[in-house]
Design goal:
This protein has about 450 residues and is of the alpha+beta class. Helices cover about 45% and strands about 25% of the residues. The chain is built from twelve helices and 18 strands. Strands 6-5-7-8 form a four-stranded antiparallel beta sheet. The protein is elongated and about 90 Å long. The protein starts with a helix and ends with a helix. The model has no long low-confidence stretch (mean pLDDT about 90).
Length: about 450
């Protein structure tokens, strides 16, 4: 079933985002009087094709990894004299800029639409109340304590742990002061806390910002009774089974599942002894924990999970917006995620963020499937984030991408004439090399995660 969700989720995601992107180019080109020869969703062998009254061929092709809008252009083929006025290359540079920019802009508008719908649907969020603070951690040194609720990060209000994590992601690889506003239980005033960062999680693969600060979110007590096992995890290999109760780890009693999680995280690739109660009998099980991540984010992994419990009503909050307020919220989220995507790319170039965080088609397919299986809200959220990523990436000043074409046209606008065809050809060759290199890196990252 999960494989079906992955396939359908990927096809829907790519189909919607690519179609909307290319429709942006198509719509503006038509408004500028450019004749569109073909509108294709996908590459390769056409599966469906038809023509409209303007003579444009619409195609749905076999390989759904992109699409294109082919316009009448003298640089690609000879154009009849009577159609020269409809040729893309004959249009003023301002119109060419508008046509090229319309694709990425369409992606940002689509993300705004999805965020608007999500804001009106609303969501249930867990209040960001601190459970425990690790001794001598960044959070402990700043005076953060158990029971405090985080209400802002760097001046931005937060209502749930997802927003806290998002604000912290912005500071990955940085040094300086992280300002966190907290509120004591029962209090109405916010108190500032200054956390000192020094090349924080710089270059770390799969960073866990909240845990790296030394903060463990508050959670309801969960009995350490196994409910599920990773087939390839250490727990399964050691013979543990669903229903087993974990009593102790290396002689230290366990009253709550979170205690085990914290101790396991601190011991990557180490050998431990678990006291296990199974069907009324108690036995000791020795196993070697797996390791995940690297550097400061390296942590132990047992490969076991427990059954979830009900959260107290006072620890949850509903966040919902009316139609007008939802527009402001959607615009703010679109802008914020666009800046975050761009900042992450910059940090990868500077080495502040590991390039292993770059994802390719395999990861996109897995996340598409998981979000589709989780529900409409999660899938729309995924589509919005992916649409923003597509818009930002296409605006990068790399020839062969929309941003590269915009760069050429802006230079033409500034100097009054276009760059020579030789220079543009060199740029395209460099652009192709860069894009292929990035795609290969993303694919290697995907395969390493498998």
């Amino acid at each position: 079933m999960s494989a079906l969700y992955m396939i359908l989720g990927t096809l829907v995601a790519l189909g919607v985002l690519v179609t909307f992107h290319e429709f942006g180019h198509f719509w503006v080109a038509r408004r500028c009087g450019v004749k569109v020869l073909r509108f294709s969703v996908g590459f390769g062998t056409p599966l469906l094709r038809w023509h409209d009254r303007h003579g444009t061929e619409f195609v749905v092709a076999a390989v759904p990894l992109g699409g294109y809008v082919k316009m009448l252009d003298e640089r690609e083929a000879e154009v009849p004299a009577e159609l020269l006025g409809q040729s893309f290359n004959r249009k003023p540079v301002g119109q060419r800029i508008a046509i090229v920019a319309a694709g990425p802009i369409a992606n940002f508008l689509l993300a705004l639409l999805f965020f608007w719908v999500l804001a009106m649907l609303g969501s249930q969020q867990v209040r960001p109340v601190i459970g425990t603070v690790a001794a001598d951690s960044i959070a402990a040194q700043a005076g953060l304590e158990s029971g405090q609720e985080i209400v802002s990060v760097d001046g931005e209000a937060v209502s749930g742990w997802n927003q806290v994590n998002l604000q912290l992601v912005r500071r990955l690889g940085e040094s300086g002061t992280l300002l966190v506003g907290v509120r004591e239980e029962g209090a109405s005033t916010e108190q500032p806390r200054e956390l000192q960062l020094n090349d924080w999680l710089k270059g770390v693969e799969e960073p866990d910002p909240i845990n790296a600060l030394g903060i463990t979110p508050w959670r309801p007590a969960i009995a350490p009774v196994l409910a599920e096992l990773d087939p390839k995890g250490p727990a399964q290999a050691a013979g543990l089974k669903p229903g087993d109760r974990l009593l102790a780890i290396d002689g230290q009693a366990l009253d709550d599942w979170q205690q085990l999680v914290e101790r396991v995280r601190k011991r990557p690739a180490e050998r431990i002894t678990l006291s296990v109660e199974s069907q009324g009998e108690v036995r000791d099980v020795q196993l070697t924990l797996a390791a995940r991540g690297e550097g400061e984010a390296r942590s132990g992994y047992l490969g076991a999970g427990v059954k979830g419990v009900e959260w107290p009503a006072e620890m949850l909050r509903e966040v919902r917006f009316g139609p007008l307020d939802a527009v402001t919220e959607a615009a703010a989220r679109t802008w914020s995620m666009s800046l975050l995507t761009l900042d992450s790319l910059k940090k990868m170039l500077l080495g502040e963020l590991s390039v292993k965080n770059l994802s390719g088609p395999i990861t996109i397919a897995k996340v598409a499937g998981a979000s589709a299986q989780s529900g409409v809200g999660d899938f729309l959220n995924f589509l919005a984030y992916l649409s923003i990523s597509l818009g930002v990436l296409n605006l990068l000043p790399i020839p062969v991408l929309d941003g590269g074409h915009l760069l050429f046209y802006l230079i033409e606008l500034a100097r009054g004439r276009p760059l020579s065809e030789r220079v543009q050809a060199w740029g395209v060759q460099i652009g192709i090399s860069l894009v292929v290199g990035i795609m290969l890196l993303a694919l290697v990252n995907d395969l390493s995660r498998l």
